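Filed under: proteins

Residues; backbone shape codes:
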Amino acid sequence: MLHNEKGFTLLEIIVALTILAGGILTLVQMFSGSLNQAAQADQYLNGVYLAQQKFSQLEMDNFKSDIMEGVFENHENYRWQLELLPYESSLNNEEARIEIQEVSLRIYWEDGNQEKEVQLVSLKTLGETHTASASALESSSQAASTTPKVPAAPKIENLIPSAAP
């Protein structure tokens, strides 16, 4: 004798648990992927930071370094490589002893089985550079800031037609 009982059958429970397990598995995979991407972003951010730091240090020495590659002291898994190349430009002038160079700084690190890199590229001039005194700079900036006087704007009251009495 069958009674009209309300409830779930074993088959319905198994299907519901299967759907729930699939959803939980998808969420765990998404979370794991997000953690992996955050770790990669952290590595790239660290590479850019180290590149900027090394580039500033090399720039202070005017890129006159006998050492063209190395490893960072506190970050042994990051290494750097400097490359100075001639840069073709119409501004290059042998008579004035002006030559433009391309400065390329690459930062490398290992991420699993892959080698990742960040590259900073800039241009610098070879040759003589001349500095100006502060007074020369001030006088040139004052000369550049003198502009012709602009006539005053007309007053609004002159633009409104007067009412006839």
Notes: The longest strand covers residues 99-111. Residues 149-165 have pLDDT under 50 and may be disordered. The chain has three helices and four strands. Helices lie at 10-60, 134-145, 156-159.
